[in-house]
Amino acid sequence: MNPLNHVAIIMDGNGRWGLKYRNSRNAGHKAGLDTVETIIKTTIENKIKFLTLFAFSTENWKRPKKEVNYLFNLLENFLVNKIEDLHKQNIKLKVLGSKKFSPKLNKLLNNSEKKTFKNNKLQINLALNYGSKSELISAFKRLKKNKSIISEKNLEKNLQTQNIPDPDLLIRTGNTKRLSNFLLWQLAYSEIFFEKKLWPAFNKKDYKRIIREFRNIKRNFGKI
Questions:
Q1: Confidence band (pLDDT; 50, 70, 90) for 222?
Q2: Does domain 6-215 have CATH number 3.40.50.200?
Q3: Is 168 annotated in the active site?
Q4: How confident is the model at residue 223 (pLDDT cuts 50, 70, 90)?
């Protein structure tokens, strides 16, 4: 049975779900937060130590400004209303990506990271304004600046996921089969599950099914 230490999720399909069931993309984003809470709870129940959620990519700035603003307002409200509860549950929050947001949101993110820094039941890595290609370029620039030898070990020390184990499992909802510039280096040997369900429809039963399937996969890592 495979150990499962780190799950990464591309939470795709909020907008499509919202248009289909509520005639509003924003309604889908709001509904997606309920799924996030369900997945966090189930992750803890299964004693998984790391959960990385792809919330906003560097490419998502191309979306309509009203939708982008709504997404950030949702995140602000989530942090204001939920960070204390996450802290009480011994959950650590870490942001991956560049914090180029409003002063209010940046402050909330920084305070949330600081408040939960010593927690160790579950670490949630929130990928915000994150793009793997930018992460890799920045890492190589730091290696060059420091005149470090280019090696896998040194590169990983300069990634934003330093000291975080690579994902064992990647889940992408929304019936889309691509990585979308997410953790391209870190996902090299992850098991990947593409789910047809849109993110707001993804539930505890779906998640537990994937976990069961993962635990029984024969993982070779290049060996026979």
A1: confident
A2: no
A3: no
A4: confident
